[in-house]
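Might you be able to check the backbone structure tokens below? Thank you kindly.
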Amino acid sequence: MNQPRGTPSAIRELTANSSRVFYEKFHQRTQAPSALLKDTDFTYGGLAEFVRRNLPQRGRILDIGCGNGVLSMYIASLGYEVVALDISERAIREAERGAKKLGIKGVTFIPEDFARFNSKDKFDAVLCFDVLEHLPDDRAAIDRIAKLLRLDGKIILRVPSPTSLVHRLRIAMVGYDAFDDSVGHLRRYNTQSITALLHQYGFRTLEIEPVEGPLRNFLYTTHTGNRFLRFVARPKIAPLLTTTDGLALKAFGCSGFNLAAALEIPQASYGV
């Protein structure tokens, strides 16, 4: 599935050591959320809106790769029962600390590798944001998600795209993308490849939303950009940057996609 050029050391580390070791290191600076997510949040506001409009009206939600739990807590605050997984024990500790501090109920955080997770009860939706590209076997992951969902249950995910201008410039200049390498990206997806993968396991695509143009991608994936994040996230600046980045996205490509799909065919009868 669209294996990128490069990312050699990320693959070596994930193979030579366990994924758990890699992501414990990745989350060594992860901190508990200090406030509940809002639609106006510069980083997660658009994601929160996408998730909210694609969630079922009520039900049980599984959040795979929850990190510090900021999205899990937001969903729990809307009245859903949330089970949140992350392979990193540190990330889960910070998520639990944040939920306690913010008084969030209805979410259970579990330090678990998704490949080993089992549940007797089915879920109404599974969230998988910035996770699928990290997994050695994405087909097995989608197969497992389909088995965990009720019929008509939804998968709501985000994956990185090879059309990102920053990504393409790195490939052109040095032959690989050091950002993919550092965070453990094993592949990127275009709309055709991700929808084809989901279709193989009985999913019908409901919505695809390109996200993050070159300006936002620069801010999130470079050391220089990181230094400006607090400045551009200010209320008077953020809307202007968001509008400009949206125009740049149309001209230069997006760095990822939000996608929602519904399970139309029970996985057991699909013959995969």
